[in-house]
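Before surveying the methods themselves, let us examine one representative protein, pairing a chain with its fold in token form.
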Amino acid sequence: MASATGTVSARSDAGKRVVTRFAPSPTGYLHIGGARTALFNWLFARHHGGTYLLRIEDTDRARSTDAAIEAIFDGLEWLGLGGDEPAVFQFARSDRHAEVAHKMLDAGHAYRCYLTQEELAAMREKAQAERRPFRIESPWRDAGPDSWPADKPYVVRVKAPREGETSIPDLVQGTITVQNAEIDDYVILRSDGTPTYMLAVVVDDHDMGVTHVIRGDDHINNAFRQIVIIRAMHAIEGGQDGKGWPDPEYGHIPLIHGADGAKLSKRHGALGVDAYRDEMGLLPEAVFNYLLRLGWGHGDEEIISREQAVEWFDIGDVNKGASRFDLKKLLNLNGHYIREADDARLAALVAPKLAALAPAFSAESGSALLEQAMPVLKVRAADVNELAKGAAFLFAQRPLTLEEKAQGLLTDEARALLGRIADRLEGESGWTTEGLEVNLKAMAEELGLGLGKLAQPLRASLTGQTTSPGIFDVLTLLGKDESLARIREQAA
């Protein structure tokens, strides 16, 4: 797990290398949209041989929790998206944020604003009555120290440009232009001296050496507000080291919608990353591959490895429109990765889930059998939960509990047939899938029956279910003694 610190190194070589960052707020789980943003930042940095950083934006002290921080780190590590350096905690850098605000204040790029909440409310009501957008028009914008009231609380507002327009070349959206009149003098330092999110983000990005800000397109408006601070500080410090505060390059990626085109929510499957792993039983490489294809592609390729993703990823190829989350497609993709996965790894993932399904299972004594069964189990499973359910019969205790449909297969005629099958199999010596197949097919032919007439009651008696791996695989995995005991238990 990533470690955490509030210290960041000086920006020394930002112009020589790519630096990206993922900066979640620890007020909840790592959701699927956040995971995709982290992925695109990680890929962009890897593709360009750069650095991918993490920042925990924990300035909302009331809602930030240690549990959420742990969940974010855990989810990122699971996806292979841990930071290249220790994570930065934003709250720990509050003094540095305030320092920048005071530099802007001293240089005339920000000002003390003594407007009260009542005065602001009156301005807002007037704008509504006149049916015009509300913009801060503070009488304190150009006021000097001589006019500052003593012992009265104030905030520090940025002095945003009022004339002309600002254009930002966006790596995803293309060039975006906003009239400067639309950007108001927002607060960068509260009346208690604490910095706002808008200021903290800009200062942290600069100090961390971030060259490319890749985030959701719901932050486009923030970019135009934040660049006011960047350019003010560039004017203030530009001559000190010859570098100043350069504009980062922006890439605003569209949000993810549900399959119905509506904003993504839990009803669409928008869960925390931990739920995809723990509750849904998905593999990280499947989630990685699926998130990669949500809004980005490389020709018609659907199955893309991490190595290929790093080689092929181009932020300019990200779609401008919203992507639609398709849970069925994710599950199908996961099925592919289940079939490709190492058997020992799958057995280790399944083992903890078997406790509830097969209480008799012991990892110490059953892991070898579980791994042996994986080749025939994984071809039928879409996730780890299905693997566990499919494996449960191997560790079931007698008397076997039969599903209702399985009970329906065991008619008097079928039970009599099971007795004859058990007698026949008593003489089977090798107990291999090949030998068992030859024996039972010969028996079916002798009785003038299709093999299914033998296999259906056999499956019910051996597994308690109507679906399972191939019947000869089931017999082999259970072994001769256990197989015969289960068959005779259900025989007439």
Summary: Residues 398-490 form a domain with the Arc Repressor Mutant, subunit A fold (CATH 1.10.10.350). The longest helix spans residues 220-241.
